[in-house]
């Protein structure tokens, strides 16, 4: 690999500086990171000015981050890293026969204190003033992925942004817990509620992630989506997002989170004065201890 | 290279999202960075928790940085990146026939407003109270690298930390411009001054760089060194550091900046009541437009 004209011993010297007491997994990660970062610098003959521009951008991301905003995460998102780590985690969880919990991306707008609502209720507590709020009826079953049997008393939690691209905790105009709720499946495994047809929105582009997007000649938009967490005793929790097939940003999500299996179709709904469109979505949960080859 | 079991199209998708208006060099750097970062994640099957720990560490570095401290730079330093970029820059400058100015690392403690002093004067304006301050006489010539002719009226600027590891602007106990000065070479190309024999000191280890060092089971010390900038009309400026051969950290500098050619020997000095040791160091400057194969 030493097909460069720089000191061929340098990277080994940095790696071997690590002491015997380094935790093995951390040593593996730092060794790999140091090799990749050094290869990146050599392959591109990185200049001091370019390196320093990168340092200042990362410092800026940290300075912009606080309890409500994680700009370092967003910088990773726009280069696809969070979605890639999500894919890796998902694949490992799939392959494990006794994964304790499939960790997954919550995103920054999840709230642990979201209240339960009754099936058939609406999560739209504040009607968007821009007239772009289209009410949809969403319903489905939670089922055992292996046997297809309906799961009674499972929990389905959803949250979504309003038409202005803001989640309720970002927007003083929205009632608390607007566009979020938890639902329990009934005796037939069914859940149902009214929500908004989701709309695309830009990720915050006033910081380093936005600067990178502009410099890469890319737009900041995420395709319309609804966040879902489904849980049931005896089953692996599922955290996911579903995407509207008609969204113009479906093929060019600024954070690369769309998977084909997560694209859904809103269709016409008849004879319901509350909603003219509907979405049917069944959630399939994997029993604890089951090995699967695709969920 | 796709010897992994993850989506083989994902990285290409992220890279190809860059638009036509992306500046070509930036596109090259981002393409390479994205490929290396994704390979790093896949090769190590990076978990969400590990990725998020990295994000939080980088955010912390930014939050700790201000006008007086660049923690993002220090994180790069402890994994050897600044020294590697310095080597790359140095090699490119060597190879260029008409490099305008060899950019080089100044470090965070350079001051542009350092005053000129007379040859033979001392830069030690505040004597260290810990008794560890050993006065040294440093002298030499500035010469033309090609012809070896002495250069008259060249400038030699030096700065160094005190025995407590602090530069004067970090330490209210030190007089302003303590341990720094600029000197002009005389009619024979000579400069001279008194300074301290430099002492090793730790890089600041109360932040993410220090945390990484501890986790890598490494010490934070830099070997004793004196910073030098030499300039002369018609010659390429030289920015460098020289290191004391007797320093215990010479082979394990926490930021990997030592080069063999920069190691110097302090020797006994006789018949000088002001200093018992001395260092002779000639600075060789490359004429503008000259091509060299090693300076």
TrEMBL record, chains A, B:
Name of the protein in its database record: Intradiol ring-cleavage dioxygenase
Family (UniProt): Belongs to the intradiol ring-cleavage dioxygenase family.
Pfam families named among the record's database cross-references: Dioxygenase_C, Dioxygenase_N
Single GO molecular function: dioxygenase activity
Record bears the keyword Iron: yes
The Catechol dioxygenase N-terminal domain, residue ranges: 24-96
InterPro entries per record: 1_2-HQD/HQD, Catechol_dOase_N, Intradiol_dOase_C, Intradiol_dOase_core, Intradiol_RC_Dioxygenase
CDD domains in alphabetical order: 1_2-HQD
Cofactor(s) recorded in Swiss-Prot or TrEMBL: Fe(3+)
Domain Intradiol ring-cleavage dioxygenases: 107-286
Biological classification of the source: Eukaryota, Fungi, Dikarya, Ascomycota, Pezizomycotina
Keywords: Dioxygenase, Iron, Metal-binding, Oxidoreductase
Organism this protein belongs to: Aspergillus cavernicola
């Amino acid at each position: 690999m030493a097909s460069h004209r720089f000191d061929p011993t340098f990277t080994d010297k940095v790696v071997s500086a690590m002491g015997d007491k380094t935790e093995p997994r951390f040593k593996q990660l730092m060794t790999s990171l140091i090799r990749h970062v050094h290869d990146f610098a050599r392959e591109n003959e990185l200049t001091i000015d370019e390196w320093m521009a990168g340092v200042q951008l990362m410092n800026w991301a940290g300075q912009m981050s606080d309890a409500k905003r994680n700009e370092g995460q967003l910088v990773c998102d726009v280069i696809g890293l969070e979605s890639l780590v999500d894919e890796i985690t998902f694949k490992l969880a799939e392959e494990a026969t006794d994964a304790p919990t499939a960790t997954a991306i919550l995103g920054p707008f999840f709230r642990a204190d979201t209240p339960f609502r009754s099936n058939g209720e609406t999560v739209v507590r504040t009607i968007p003033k821009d007239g772009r709020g289209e009410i949809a009826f969403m319903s489905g079953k939670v089922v055992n992925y292996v046997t297809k049997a309906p799961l009674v008393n499972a929990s389905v939690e959803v949250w979504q942004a309003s038409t202005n691209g803001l989640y309720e905790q970002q927007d003083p105009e929205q009632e608390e817990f607007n566009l979020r709720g938890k639902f329990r499946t009934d005796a037939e495994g069914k859940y149902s509620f009214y929500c908004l047809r989701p709309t695309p929105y830009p990720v915050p582009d006033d910081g380093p992630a936005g600067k990178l997007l502009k410099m890469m000649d890319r737009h900041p938009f995420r395709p319309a989506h609804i966040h879902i967490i489904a849980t049931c005793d005896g089953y692996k929790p599922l955290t996911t997002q579903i995407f509207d097939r008609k969204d113009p940003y479906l093929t060019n999500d600024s954070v690369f989170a769309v998977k084909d299996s997560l694209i859904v179709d809103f269709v016409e709904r008849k004879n319901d004065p509350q909603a003219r469109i509907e979405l049917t979505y069944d959630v399939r949960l994997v029993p604890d201890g089951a090995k699967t080859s695709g969920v």
